[in-house]
Amino acid sequence: MRVAMYYNNRDVRLEEMETPRIESGEMLVQIFASSICGSDTMEWYRIKRAPLVLGHEIAGRVAKTGDGVTRFSTGDRVVATHHVPCFACHYCKTGHETVCDTLLGGTHFDPGGFCEYVRLPAINVERGTWLLPDEVTYEAATFVEPLACVLRGQRIANIRPGASVLVLGSGIAGLLHIKLAAANGAGLLVATDLNQERRALARQYGAHHALQADSDVAGEFRKLNNGRGADVVIVCAAAEAVCQQALQA
Predict the structure, then answer these.
(1) pLDDT in tens, 213-244
(2) Which of 77, 122, 129, 140 lies 20 to 30 A from 187 at CA?
(3) Helix (H), strand (E) counts: the chain
(4) d(C-alpha 120, C-alpha 28), whole Å
């Protein structure tokens, strides 16, 4: 099968690799869509393990099922997540699944989403794979994983109806946060970004105001919020200045 082999951010090669073989409880999924996560472009993080096949936001069709798989059949349209927790350890039971030892090791796709076929480990098949409704496209389904991160974040932040919310950064994650906060009934919803087009998208997705990111964000927010700071600040940009804005707002 063909794979996109990552060597560094300026060197990604189309190469051939043997199609993974599956064992009991596992599945082989033909990839129809695989989106690019921001972490896929973090060269300092990825290059230590290069060459490798990246991609973890996938959707596709079941090509083959291993013995014991009963929930899925060949031809099913599915979306799968690359990490799954055990749901039994101390961290899982206290709502901190992202530090579960099972999630952090041994639940990766083989070899990665930027290829023609991936092997899903049995635990991923059991706990991290879902059938796609007919009306959901493969492309839209690749948003399941990033949207799940947003849903979890806002659940932990406990955004209540009427709360004032400031979203710092209006990239993909920021726009998802804006849309979800608006759907959940946020009161004043303000976004920031350096890019004019992203600020326009933020307003389109539900932000009442979109501020220039290098302005006096905390001061401008208070003017819009009757002198009060934000009830919830969501950081969606990796910059020290943004973290300072979050603390000030």
Answers:
(1) 999 999 999 999 999 999 999 999 989 999 99
(2) 140
(3) 10, 12
(4) 6
What is the DSSP annotation of 128-177?
SEEEPPTTS-HHHHTTHHHHHHHHHHHHHHTPPTT--EEEE--SHHHHHH
Residue by residue, DSSP assigns 55-97 as: --EEEEEEEEE-TT--S--TT-EEEE-S----S-SHHHHTT-G
| Strand 57-65, strand 27-35: pairing | antiparallel
Residue pair 193/199 in contact (Cβ under 8 Å)? The answer is yes
SS3 of 208, please? Answer: coil
Q: Is the peptide bond before 51 cis (omega within 30 degrees of 0)?
A: yes
Which architecture does CATH list for 149-248?
3-Layer(aba) Sandwich (3.40)
Establish whether the linkage from the previous residue to 111 is cis, with ω within 30° of 0.
yes
| Strand partners of residue 123 | none
The domain ranges of the chain are 2-142, 149-248
H helix or E strand, kind and range, residue 8: strand 2-8
Q: In whole numbers, what is the pLDDT of the chain averaged over residues? A: 95
- Which residue ranges of the chain lie beneath pLDDT 70? 106
| Architecture per CATH, 2-142 | Alpha-Beta Complex (3.90)
Q: Rounded to the nearest 10 degrees, what angle do helices 144-157 and 172-183 cross at?
A: 60
Q: What is the layout of strands, in order, in the sheet containing 11-16?
A: 11-16, 2-8, 52-53
In contact, 239 and 171? CB cutoff 8 Å: no
Tell me the pTM.
0.89
Residues in the chain: 249
